[in-house]
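Appendix B, Record 12. Input sequence as logged:
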Amino acid sequence: MRSSPELGRHRMLPILPIVCALLAAPNQEAEDRWIADLRSEDEIVRRNAALALLQRGPEGVPRLLRELRHERPEVPGQVERWMKRLEEERWRDRAEAAAALVALGSHGAPHLERHRDHEILEVRWRVRAALEEIGERAPREREAERRGDAVLCEVLGEIGDERCVPDLLRSAETAEGNVRMRAALALVRMREKLTGEQRRGASEAAFAALAAETDEPRRVLLVAAVGDLGCAESAAELGAVLGNESAGGLQMRRAAIFALGKIGTAEALALVIRALAAEDEYVRDAALVVVRSACGSAHGFDARRSAREQAKAVAEIREWWGKKFGRRWEP
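Logged structural output:
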């Protein structure tokens, strides 16, 4: 099974508790704990939980997908059971029930809201207090869910089960921040199992994530992901990334060139050849790497010199492109 760089960086982290747990067949309690640990603020805890869930392979996919969808079918019943406990005679039982209702968080709030005007005064007070506390905790809860969802996408991509594709596409298209990026990268790892339409959807999602992302290394990863997906329709948008110096730094432009090289269509390689005329030597160097790989020769082009000084070499490269694709080069 292939390993992502993100998971791979932590292979040497102490995972003795996980290993011990895996010696026995995973049970519901262990799986629940690992799922909860995915939301931890501690990266080591998250990574250990991810490795444990990864060991379950395709067998664990249904549960992971339910978590990614935030499905909680058990919550309405839990709310009703704890509501009954709020009417118990013992104070300890009522306090325990109130704490349990708060612990259900935003998933329980809509069901708890129906009891806001409960006929018993103390129950009504406890319900309203619980709803208020849930509201106060909501931002932290959403942040924890985003942490968990990002790792879930990564684990699902590693498992590579085809059942994951629709949910990963949905997350890549609609989720926020790191979750969207992790979903897009997970789809890249599964690209051999995607249909043409799914690849196009994943590419569009990667571009949408790129537009929302501000972290440069992550933007470079997303551009590379588009290249790995290999959709011919992505060439024009990659060309826009390549041509817009203000929208991205040097690494972004180089990543766009390498992505175009992976796509390898006439339009993609034409954009790469045009990049030989870039002002920046390192952009020219990336374009030359792709050209040399595609046609087997640099035709004497030297990235350290401008294209204007090497008209003959550029003309030969354009001639190669014309013969390969049966088309005439258009300036």
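The CA atoms of residues 102 and 132 lie 9 Å apart.
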